TrEMBL record:
Residues 201-217 have a biased composition (Polar residues). Keywords: Membrane, Transmembrane, Transmembrane helix. Residues 221-230 have a biased composition (Low complexity). The keyword RNA-binding does not apply. Residues 182-264 are annotated as: Disordered. The chain crosses the membrane at residues 12-40, 68-87, 99-122, 142-163. It comes from Nocardiopsis exhalans. This is DUF2567 domain-containing protein. It comes from the Bacteria. Residues 253-264 have a biased composition (Basic and acidic residues).
Length: 264
């Protein structure tokens, strides 16, 4: 059974714990991928120069090591972005607590740390090859040590991680399935105010729609459709038939109901 999350210190502590777990898990993956990069990346052959430097040339092997770094970290960003979002989704559903921001920030920081760990661990594992280059004589051809000259590639993991996380959150928003996010309050009609065909629909101009629909007086005035005796109009020219035994009614002086107008 899902638990209702508390507010205040309890919710904050739970969010910090989840964030620390996300950060540690993503950073640990970076530490594991450092040896993988060191093992897969090819090394070019270089020529040692008199000043202690090396000549790498323009072969594709020179850039293959950095290409493997980008490929490994980008795939890792896809995996961590998906895993982080799905984990916070599951936790938010169980605890009824919105953890999207926690997962985004902790995962992004963890991916930055993981990318740095892949770089530093891979380079450190190739330390013996670097010592061989330093000990070589001028003009010797040796295998170069692993290195990452374009440090801008370090943003590949965080960028892909955030992009994957954002796409999943956008898809969840379109579906309307975001656990832990309070639903908007819907203003439902009062259950007593039922509308039936033929009755006047309630609106803002009618303060008491039920009274008008039933024909009861509102503010002392009868409803428009209530049954009431029809008062004769002052301009009604149709005279009522005279009772039996009486003559026709005489028009009063000043009466304009006749066709010839008022009598003089």
């Amino acid at each position: 059974m899902a638990e209702q999350s508390g507010t205040g210190a309890s919710g904050l502590g739970r969010g910090l714990a989840v964030g620390a777990a996300f950060f540690g898990g993503v950073a640990l993956l970076g530490a594991l991928l450092g040896p993988l990069w060191w093992w897969l990346a090819p090394r070019p052959e270089v020529v040692v120069l008199p000043d202690g430097g090396v000549f790498t040339g323009a072969s594709e092997t020179v850039f293959a090591g950095e290409g493997y770094f980008v490929l490994i970290t980008a795939l890792a960003g896809l995996v961590t972005g998906y895993a982080t979002y799905m984990l916070q989704f599951s936790l938010a559903r169980r605890r009824f607590q919105d953890l999207r921001l926690v997962g985004l920030v902790a995962g992004a920081l963890g991916s930055v740390a993981a990318s740095l760990l892949v770089w530093r661990i891979g380079v450190a594992l190739d330390g013996p090859a670097r010592e061989l280059v330093l000990a070589a004589e001028t003009g010797d051809t040796v295998i170069a040590a692993l290195q990452l000259q374009a440090t801008a590639f370090l943003v590949a993991w965080p960028f892909v991680h955030i992009l994957q996380y954002g796409l999943l959150d956008a898809f969840s928003l379109l579906r309307g399935d975001q656990p832990g996010v309070p639903e908007p309050v819907r203003a439902d009609r009062h259950p007593d105010a039922e509308w039936t065909p033929g009755a006047q629909a309630p609106n803002s101009e009618d303060p008491n729609p039920r009274a008008q629909a039933s024909g009861t007086p509102v503010n002392g005035a009868p409803a428009p459709h209530a049954s009431a005796p029809h008062a004769p109009s002052p301009h009604d020219t149709t005279a009522a038939p005279a009772p039996e035994g009486q003559g026709p009614p005489m028009a009063a002086e000043g009466d304009r109901s006749g066709p010839e107008g008022p009598r003089s």
